[in-house]
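hey can u check if this looks right to u? its 321 residues, i copy pasted from the old doc so theres a chance i mangled smth
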Amino acid sequence: IARIPPKNVSTSDKDLLRNLERDLKMVVFGQDPAIESLSTAIKLARAGLKAPEKPEGAFLFAGPTGVGKTEVTKQLAKVLGIELVRFDMSEYMERHTVSRLIGAPPGYVGYDQGGLLTESVSKHPHCVLLLDEIEKAHPEVFNLLLQVMDHGTLTDNNGRKADFRHVILVMTTNAGAESMARRSIGFSEQDHSTDGMEIISKTFTPEFRNRLDGIIQFGDLQPATITHVVDKFLTELQAQLDEKHVVLHVDDAAKEWLAEKGYDVTMGARPMARLIQDKIKRPLAEQILFGRLSEHGGDVHIHLKDGELEFEYEDEPAEAV
Protein backbone atom coordinates (compact mmCIF):
# COMPACT_ATOMS: atom_id res chain seq x y z
CA ILE A 1 0.00 0.00 0.00
CA ALA A 2 2.82 2.39 0.93
CA ARG A 3 4.69 1.44 -2.25
CA ILE A 4 8.02 1.08 -0.44
CA PRO A 5 10.51 -0.51 -2.88
CA PRO A 6 11.94 -3.92 -1.98
CA LYS A 7 15.64 -4.30 -1.19
CA ASN A 8 16.20 -6.01 -4.53
CA VAL A 9 15.12 -3.87 -7.47
CA SER A 10 12.53 -5.73 -9.56
CA THR A 11 12.63 -6.00 -13.35
CA SER A 12 9.86 -3.40 -13.84
CA ASP A 13 11.66 -0.99 -11.49
CA LYS A 14 14.89 -1.52 -13.42
CA ASP A 15 13.12 -0.48 -16.61
CA LEU A 16 11.81 2.65 -14.85
CA LEU A 17 15.27 3.56 -13.58
CA ARG A 18 16.97 2.73 -16.89
CA ASN A 19 14.61 5.05 -18.76
CA LEU A 20 14.29 7.68 -16.00
CA GLU A 21 16.61 10.18 -17.66
CA ARG A 22 14.96 9.72 -21.08
CA ASP A 23 11.42 10.00 -19.66
CA LEU A 24 12.20 13.22 -17.78
CA LYS A 25 13.84 14.79 -20.84
CA MET A 26 10.69 14.06 -22.86
CA VAL A 27 8.54 16.27 -20.59
CA VAL A 28 11.01 18.92 -19.35
CA PHE A 29 12.99 20.70 -22.04
CA GLY A 30 16.33 22.50 -22.05
CA GLN A 31 17.50 21.22 -18.65
CA ASP A 32 19.46 18.11 -19.69
CA PRO A 33 22.46 18.61 -17.31
CA ALA A 34 20.12 19.03 -14.32
CA ILE A 35 18.10 15.92 -15.25
CA GLU A 36 21.29 13.87 -15.77
CA SER A 37 22.62 14.83 -12.31
CA LEU A 38 19.30 13.97 -10.66
CA SER A 39 18.95 10.63 -12.47
CA THR A 40 22.49 9.57 -11.54
CA ALA A 41 21.92 10.33 -7.85
CA ILE A 42 18.62 8.40 -7.75
CA LYS A 43 20.15 5.36 -9.49
CA LEU A 44 22.95 5.42 -6.90
CA ALA A 45 20.40 5.35 -4.06
CA ARG A 46 18.26 2.61 -5.62
CA ALA A 47 21.35 0.47 -6.24
CA GLY A 48 21.80 0.39 -2.45
CA LEU A 49 25.00 2.44 -2.44
CA LYS A 50 23.74 5.32 -0.29
CA ALA A 51 24.11 5.56 3.50
CA PRO A 52 21.27 3.36 4.87
CA GLU A 53 20.06 5.86 7.48
CA LYS A 54 19.75 8.82 5.08
CA PRO A 55 16.94 9.76 2.66
CA GLU A 56 17.12 8.36 -0.88
CA GLY A 57 18.21 11.78 -2.04
CA ALA A 58 18.38 15.38 -0.83
CA PHE A 59 18.66 17.94 -3.61
CA LEU A 60 18.59 21.71 -3.92
CA PHE A 61 17.25 22.87 -7.30
CA ALA A 62 18.53 26.38 -8.00
CA GLY A 63 17.70 28.61 -10.95
CA PRO A 64 15.43 31.32 -12.38
CA THR A 65 11.65 31.24 -12.18
CA GLY A 66 9.66 29.26 -14.74
CA VAL A 67 12.45 27.02 -16.08
CA GLY A 68 11.16 23.66 -14.81
CA LYS A 69 12.42 23.13 -11.23
CA THR A 70 9.00 22.24 -9.82
CA GLU A 71 7.98 20.49 -13.06
CA VAL A 72 10.97 18.11 -12.91
CA THR A 73 9.95 17.18 -9.35
CA LYS A 74 6.34 16.52 -10.36
CA GLN A 75 7.39 14.43 -13.35
CA LEU A 76 9.94 12.52 -11.22
CA ALA A 77 7.16 11.39 -8.87
CA LYS A 78 4.96 10.52 -11.85
CA VAL A 79 7.65 8.48 -13.63
CA LEU A 80 8.58 6.57 -10.45
CA GLY A 81 4.90 6.01 -9.66
CA ILE A 82 5.09 7.44 -6.14
CA GLU A 83 3.31 10.20 -4.22
CA LEU A 84 4.30 13.88 -4.51
CA VAL A 85 4.05 15.72 -1.18
CA ARG A 86 4.44 19.48 -1.64
CA PHE A 87 4.91 22.28 0.90
CA ASP A 88 5.19 25.95 -0.08
CA MET A 89 7.78 27.45 2.26
CA SER A 90 6.30 30.96 1.95
CA GLU A 91 3.72 29.67 4.45
CA TYR A 92 6.45 28.96 7.01
CA MET A 93 8.25 32.31 7.22
CA GLU A 94 7.31 33.02 10.86
CA ARG A 95 8.68 31.10 13.84
CA HIS A 96 5.24 30.06 15.16
CA THR A 97 4.29 28.47 11.81
CA VAL A 98 7.09 25.90 12.14
CA SER A 99 4.99 24.06 14.74
CA ARG A 100 2.53 23.21 11.93
CA LEU A 101 5.20 20.97 10.39
CA ILE A 102 5.90 18.82 13.48
CA GLY A 103 2.80 19.54 15.60
CA ALA A 104 1.87 22.01 18.33
CA PRO A 105 3.63 21.77 21.73
CA PRO A 106 1.72 20.47 24.80
CA GLY A 107 -0.96 22.84 26.06
CA TYR A 108 -1.63 24.37 22.64
CA VAL A 109 -4.59 23.81 20.34
CA GLY A 110 -4.01 20.85 18.00
CA TYR A 111 -1.43 19.15 20.24
CA ASP A 112 -3.02 15.74 19.62
CA GLN A 113 -3.15 16.09 15.82
CA GLY A 114 0.54 15.80 14.88
CA GLY A 115 2.35 17.92 12.30
CA LEU A 116 1.63 18.32 8.59
CA LEU A 117 5.11 17.19 7.51
CA THR A 118 5.46 14.23 9.86
CA GLU A 119 1.89 13.05 9.20
CA SER A 120 2.33 13.28 5.41
CA VAL A 121 5.55 11.25 5.46
CA SER A 122 4.07 8.68 7.87
CA LYS A 123 1.13 8.31 5.47
CA HIS A 124 3.36 8.18 2.35
CA PRO A 125 6.71 6.78 3.54
CA HIS A 126 7.98 6.44 -0.03
CA CYS A 127 7.39 9.77 -1.77
CA VAL A 128 8.97 12.78 -3.44
CA LEU A 129 8.90 15.56 -0.85
CA LEU A 130 8.97 19.01 -2.49
CA LEU A 131 9.76 22.08 -0.38
CA ASP A 132 9.15 24.99 -2.75
CA GLU A 133 11.09 28.28 -2.35
CA ILE A 134 13.08 26.99 0.61
CA GLU A 135 14.96 30.28 1.06
CA LYS A 136 11.73 31.86 2.41
CA ALA A 137 11.45 29.38 5.30
CA HIS A 138 12.23 30.36 8.91
CA PRO A 139 15.73 29.27 10.09
CA GLU A 140 14.07 26.76 12.46
CA VAL A 141 12.92 24.81 9.39
CA PHE A 142 16.55 24.39 8.30
CA ASN A 143 17.38 22.96 11.75
CA LEU A 144 14.65 20.34 11.27
CA LEU A 145 15.95 19.49 7.80
CA LEU A 146 19.49 18.93 9.10
CA GLN A 147 18.20 16.03 11.19
CA VAL A 148 16.16 14.67 8.27
CA MET A 149 19.13 14.77 5.88
CA ASP A 150 21.54 13.31 8.47
CA HIS A 151 19.53 10.55 10.15
CA GLY A 152 16.41 10.10 8.00
CA THR A 153 13.98 10.61 10.90
CA LEU A 154 11.97 13.44 12.43
CA THR A 155 10.16 13.25 15.78
CA ASP A 156 6.89 15.14 16.17
CA ASN A 157 5.68 16.71 19.42
CA ASN A 158 3.84 13.51 20.36
CA GLY A 159 7.10 11.57 20.32
CA ARG A 160 6.25 9.66 17.13
CA LYS A 161 9.05 9.23 14.62
CA ALA A 162 8.50 9.77 10.91
CA ASP A 163 10.81 7.69 8.71
CA PHE A 164 12.37 9.65 5.82
CA ARG A 165 14.72 6.88 4.58
CA HIS A 166 12.58 6.18 1.50
CA VAL A 167 11.90 9.86 0.74
CA ILE A 168 13.43 11.81 -2.15
CA LEU A 169 13.76 15.33 -0.72
CA VAL A 170 13.77 18.18 -3.25
CA MET A 171 14.06 21.85 -2.30
CA THR A 172 13.77 24.64 -4.87
CA THR A 173 15.19 28.14 -4.66
CA ASN A 174 15.48 31.25 -6.82
CA ALA A 175 18.50 32.43 -4.79
CA GLY A 176 21.33 33.44 -7.09
CA ALA A 177 19.21 33.53 -10.24
CA GLU A 178 19.25 37.33 -10.39
CA SER A 179 23.06 37.44 -10.18
CA MET A 180 23.46 34.91 -12.98
CA ALA A 181 21.08 36.85 -15.24
CA ARG A 182 22.50 40.34 -14.67
CA ARG A 183 24.06 42.13 -17.61
CA SER A 184 27.74 42.95 -17.95
CA ILE A 185 28.89 46.54 -17.48
CA GLY A 186 30.89 48.14 -20.28
CA PHE A 187 31.91 46.61 -23.58
CA SER A 188 33.54 43.41 -22.33
CA GLU A 189 31.35 40.36 -21.73
CA GLN A 190 31.59 39.07 -18.16
CA ASP A 191 30.84 35.52 -17.00
CA HIS A 192 28.22 35.55 -14.22
CA SER A 193 27.60 31.80 -14.24
CA THR A 194 29.39 31.26 -10.91
CA ASP A 195 27.75 34.25 -9.18
CA GLY A 196 24.65 32.18 -8.42
CA MET A 197 26.68 29.68 -6.37
CA GLU A 198 28.18 32.54 -4.35
CA ILE A 199 24.68 33.77 -3.42
CA ILE A 200 23.60 30.20 -2.55
CA SER A 201 26.69 29.88 -0.31
CA LYS A 202 25.68 33.05 1.53
CA THR A 203 21.99 32.09 1.77
CA PHE A 204 22.47 28.52 3.04
CA THR A 205 24.86 27.57 5.86
CA PRO A 206 27.81 25.20 5.22
CA GLU A 207 26.29 22.53 7.50
CA PHE A 208 23.10 22.61 5.38
CA ARG A 209 24.95 22.48 2.04
CA ASN A 210 27.23 19.65 3.21
CA ARG A 211 24.26 17.39 3.86
CA LEU A 212 22.83 17.77 0.35
CA ASP A 213 23.41 15.07 -2.25
CA GLY A 214 23.64 17.77 -4.87
CA ILE A 215 22.97 21.41 -5.74
CA ILE A 216 21.48 21.16 -9.22
CA GLN A 217 21.62 24.32 -11.33
CA PHE A 218 18.84 25.05 -13.82
CA GLY A 219 19.70 27.43 -16.65
CA ASP A 220 17.58 29.94 -18.58
CA LEU A 221 15.30 28.52 -21.26
CA GLN A 222 16.79 29.07 -24.70
CA PRO A 223 14.71 30.24 -27.72
CA ALA A 224 15.24 26.87 -29.45
CA THR A 225 13.61 25.09 -26.50
CA ILE A 226 10.44 27.20 -26.55
CA THR A 227 8.94 25.37 -29.55
CA HIS A 228 8.98 22.17 -27.46
CA VAL A 229 7.30 24.06 -24.61
CA VAL A 230 4.55 25.21 -27.00
CA ASP A 231 3.94 21.61 -28.08
CA LYS A 232 3.80 20.49 -24.45
CA PHE A 233 1.19 23.10 -23.49
CA LEU A 234 -0.91 22.33 -26.58
CA THR A 235 -0.77 18.59 -25.80
CA GLU A 236 -1.98 19.29 -22.25
CA LEU A 237 -4.78 21.47 -23.64
CA GLN A 238 -5.80 18.72 -26.07
CA ALA A 239 -6.01 16.27 -23.15
CA GLN A 240 -8.48 18.65 -21.46
CA LEU A 241 -10.49 19.01 -24.68
CA ASP A 242 -10.75 15.26 -25.32
CA GLU A 243 -13.70 14.77 -22.96
CA LYS A 244 -15.49 17.66 -24.72
CA HIS A 245 -14.94 15.87 -28.08
CA VAL A 246 -13.01 18.88 -29.36
CA VAL A 247 -9.93 18.32 -31.55
CA LEU A 248 -7.32 21.05 -31.89
CA HIS A 249 -5.27 21.65 -35.07
CA VAL A 250 -2.58 24.35 -34.76
CA ASP A 251 -0.45 25.08 -37.84
CA ASP A 252 3.31 25.74 -37.73
CA ALA A 253 2.99 29.51 -38.25
CA ALA A 254 0.65 29.78 -35.26
CA LYS A 255 3.07 27.72 -33.14
CA GLU A 256 5.96 29.99 -34.14
CA TRP A 257 3.85 33.04 -33.22
CA LEU A 258 3.11 31.52 -29.78
CA ALA A 259 6.81 30.71 -29.29
CA GLU A 260 7.82 34.28 -30.15
CA LYS A 261 5.15 36.05 -28.09
CA GLY A 262 5.34 33.68 -25.11
CA TYR A 263 9.11 33.72 -24.63
CA ASP A 264 10.68 35.85 -21.93
CA VAL A 265 14.26 35.06 -20.91
CA THR A 266 13.72 36.31 -17.34
CA MET A 267 10.30 34.68 -16.75
CA GLY A 268 10.83 31.25 -18.33
CA ALA A 269 7.81 29.29 -19.57
CA ARG A 270 5.16 30.94 -17.37
CA PRO A 271 4.29 33.75 -19.85
CA MET A 272 3.56 31.00 -22.41
CA ALA A 273 0.87 29.54 -20.14
CA ARG A 274 -0.76 32.97 -19.79
CA LEU A 275 -0.56 33.62 -23.56
CA ILE A 276 -2.26 30.30 -24.38
CA GLN A 277 -4.93 31.04 -21.79
CA ASP A 278 -5.64 34.50 -23.24
CA LYS A 279 -5.37 33.71 -26.96
CA ILE A 280 -6.65 30.12 -27.21
CA LYS A 281 -8.46 28.98 -24.07
CA ARG A 282 -10.72 32.03 -23.73
CA PRO A 283 -12.15 31.89 -27.28
CA LEU A 284 -12.53 28.11 -26.92
CA ALA A 285 -14.38 28.48 -23.61
CA GLU A 286 -16.97 30.75 -25.27
CA GLN A 287 -17.52 28.27 -28.11
CA ILE A 288 -17.66 25.23 -25.78
CA LEU A 289 -20.25 26.87 -23.52
CA PHE A 290 -22.40 28.85 -25.95
CA GLY A 291 -21.17 28.41 -29.54
CA ARG A 292 -20.32 25.92 -32.27
CA LEU A 293 -18.71 23.39 -29.90
CA SER A 294 -21.44 23.33 -27.24
CA GLU A 295 -23.50 20.41 -28.61
CA HIS A 296 -21.23 17.65 -29.94
CA GLY A 297 -17.76 19.21 -29.98
CA GLY A 298 -15.91 19.48 -33.29
CA ASP A 299 -12.63 20.42 -34.94
CA VAL A 300 -10.82 23.70 -34.27
CA HIS A 301 -8.24 24.90 -36.81
CA ILE A 302 -5.96 27.69 -35.58
CA HIS A 303 -3.76 29.58 -38.02
CA LEU A 304 -2.08 32.96 -38.27
CA LYS A 305 -3.67 35.86 -40.15
CA ASP A 306 -2.47 39.49 -40.09
CA GLY A 307 -0.33 38.86 -37.01
CA GLU A 308 -3.16 37.36 -34.93
CA LEU A 309 -4.55 33.88 -34.34
CA GLU A 310 -7.67 33.02 -36.35
CA PHE A 311 -10.05 30.18 -35.48
CA GLU A 312 -12.08 28.02 -37.87
CA TYR A 313 -14.62 25.50 -36.56
CA GLU A 314 -15.89 22.22 -38.03
CA ASP A 315 -18.69 20.24 -36.43
CA GLU A 316 -17.34 16.71 -37.02
CA PRO A 317 -14.26 15.96 -34.85
CA ALA A 318 -11.32 14.20 -36.52
CA GLU A 319 -7.92 13.12 -35.21
CA ALA A 320 -5.75 15.74 -33.44
CA VAL A 321 -2.71 16.98 -35.32
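The beta strands are 57-62, 83-88, 127-132, 153-155, 161-163, 168-173, 214-217, 246-250, 298-305, 308-314.
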